[in-house]
Amino acid sequence: MMFTRLSALFVNARCVPAAVSVQLVDLSTGQPHRINGLSLSLRTHAPDEVMTQLMRGRDPGRWRAEVIP
């Protein structure tokens, strides 16, 4: 019985994508965007959605959202 529970847990764990960090980069400096000295970095399982949200209303000629594994 225990083996069945563990194998079900393993199968479910494989379906969840790994968490990655997404950060906003200023193209003029090549540095991450900072707020009060801390770089803006978000951990997520849905990097495409976070990248879209970070870039909303921003000039793509000045900003880039990048994924860090």
Task: Kindly list the characteristics that best describe this protein.
single chain; 69 residues; alpha+beta; 4-stranded antiparallel sheet; two-stranded antiparallel sheet; globular
Q: What overall geometry do the principal axes of the alpha carbons give?
A: globular
Helix content: 25-40%
Low-confidence stretches: none
- Approximate strand percentage: 25-35%
Helix-strand pattern: HEEEEEHE
How would you characterize the largest beta sheet? 4 strands, antiparallel
Count of β-strands: 6
Helix count, DSSP H or I runs of 4 or more residues: 2
**What's the rounded overall pLDDT mean?**
83
CA(first)-CA(last) distance: 36 Å
Structural class: alpha+beta
Rg, nearest Å: 17 Å
Task: Give a quick precis of the structure.
This protein is of the alpha+beta class. The protein contains two helices and six strands; from the N terminus they run αβββββαβ.
